[in-house]
Amino acid sequence: MRAAEEVAGTLTQPRRARVPGLAPQLNRPHAAIHLGEYLQMGEIQDLFERVPADPYVSAGFRHKSIMRVHVSDGQIHRATHGPLFQPKEYNPIHGDIVRHYEEIDERLGTLLEPAIHIFAGCARLSGEHEVLVQTQRITASSGDDGHTGFPVVEGWHQDNISVLGLFLVNRVNVAGGISMLAGDRRGEKLVFAQTLAVGDLLLVDDTALWHNTTPIARIDPTKPAYRDIVIMTWPSCRETVTV
Ligand SMILES: [Fe+2]
Question: Which of 65, 56, 74 is closest to 101 using CA atoms?
Answer without folding.
Answer: 65
